[in-house]
Amino acid sequence: MKSLRNDAPIGVFDSGVGGLSVLRAIRDELPAESLLYVADSGYAPYGDRDAGFIADRATKITELLLEYGVKTVVVACNTATVVAIEKLRSWCPVPVVAMEPAIKPAAQRTRSGVVGVLATSQTLASPSVARLCAAHGKNIEILLQPCPGLVEQVEKAELTSDTSRALLIRYISPLLEAGADTLVLGCTHYPFLNKLIREIAGPDVAIVDPATAVAKEVARRLGDQRVSSLRSSPAAARFISSAAADDASAIISALWGNSVIVHGIEQHRSNQVTAR
Ligand code: DGL
Question: Where are the domains of the chain?
Answer without folding.
Answer: 10-99+212-275, 103-209
